[in-house]
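FORM 7B - TANDEM STRUCTURE REPORT

SECTION 1: FIRST PROTEIN
SEQUENCE AND TOKENS:
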Amino acid sequence: MMAALTHDIARAVDPEDLPRLARELGVNINEVEEAAPILLHGPVAARWLASRYGVEDEEVLAVARWHSTGRAGMSALEKVLFLADKVEPEKAAGRPDLEEVRRRAETDLDAAILRYLDLQLLEAVRQGWPLHPDAVAARNELLLGRQRRGQGWPPVPNR
């Protein structure tokens, strides 16, 4: 419950202020986050939860930290909050492609996250956006895991 209620604690911070604030809190910032500073609201939230509010639960901090990008090695709680954050009604308005993600989530959380990340990848290509390395790592982990289990994605091509 705490993870759901607190993951967006830094969302109201002006994106222009997030890089400075993140640095002050000791967050390492990558080039993608420099280009899209709104992605820093998760890492800032995690630091605030720990330093301002004494949150010590590593899973709650991880939910806050990676709810915008995802990451390889997400716990079940991280996956649920990541996906819920992406398909909540306000964000999903006008995006019929997210209905497929919601349907998949009813039976296969990993398949739903993978589909969401695929949709984000396609949008990034269309818009010319860089891909966050943590999102790429999450997608690769999910995709390769499904391949190992024989769940229908094509194998990685031989070089």
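SECTION 2: SECOND PROTEIN
SEQUENCE AND TOKENS:
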Amino acid sequence: MEYLDTTIKKYLDDLALNLPAPGGGSAAALVSCLGISCLLMVANFTVSKKGYESVQEEIKNIIAELSKNKMELEKYIDKDVKAYNEVVTAFKLPKNTPVEIETREKKIQEATKNAAYVSFEMMKFSHQCLIFAERLLEIGNKNLVTDIACGVLFLYSGILAAKYNVLINLKSIKDTSFTQDIKKEVKKIVTDTKIISKKILQKIKL
């Protein structure tokens, strides 16, 4: 089952149950998608509007970029579920012989690396979209500044939520080179996310 093809109610009901997945990682992707959608709404309400003629080309480019990232990030609602299930499946492999133990450990490491990377990619896509929020605040429809605020807050939350899912998986990965590289990139994204979000929200005066 692909959650992206089900109703919001079905997804939220399953998220609330004692099911292995969906969990926080998948929900992080959903939250980020809500953030991107808010920014897209602002951009779409700026297209062909009187008073915004000089920024039409740039707005259309922003819509194209945000739409592309939204389509990619939507996939991670289900990608995270699949990644988690792969980790669970790996842990259920037999461990009765040395060969089975070795095979099981290899599969666990592979699945856990993938789970960490799935959440890391969520962070990257979300961060790429957050960057457009500042420009939308400058050139977008002035009647929708609160929607920009909502978009920023959702993306901020999605990025931080995904961060925790990256870090919890990295704890189980033995490849120190992989973990160090990802941690370094995660730190950069989180730092930049906080700076951008604070800067935008401080500019929104109500």
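SECTION 3: OBSERVATIONS ON SECOND PROTEIN
The helical segments are 8-16, 24-44, 56-91, 98-139, 145-170, 176-203.
The chain has six helices and no strands.

SECTION 4: SIGNATURE
Preparer initials: ____
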